[in-house]
Hints:
The protein is mainly α. Helices cover 71% and strands 0% of the residues. The radius of gyration is 20 Å and the shape is extended.
Amino acid sequence: FGLIGSIVAMGEGVGPAIGGMIAHYIHWSYLLLIPMITIITVPFLMKLLKKEVRIKGHFDIKGIILMSVGIVFFMLFTTSYSISFLIVSVLSFLIFVKHIRKVTDPFVDPGLGKNIPFMIGFLCGGII
């Protein structure tokens, strides 16, 4: 979380300021050209990356659906305060946790919950 977290924090702080300067001094439509820099540099950056070894595995559709339902219904609960949305969200997350412990290729590795530095970074990112 050190280098990546610092770069993300810097981008979140500096990005709006640069965007504001471009919109104020040039024109807001030039902001749409910024992603073009990424598109142009991707082929060059791909040459720098090492080839990854592909690991065969199954795509955990059920895990993705359970987690998505949990997130969506929790967001609905936070805006409408309907207890039924909270119940569906909690049940979905509980079934999701049970599911990822059973499946061979889970959508989220259950071992991440035991990784203390990851959890601290995750909680700090959630608080910010």
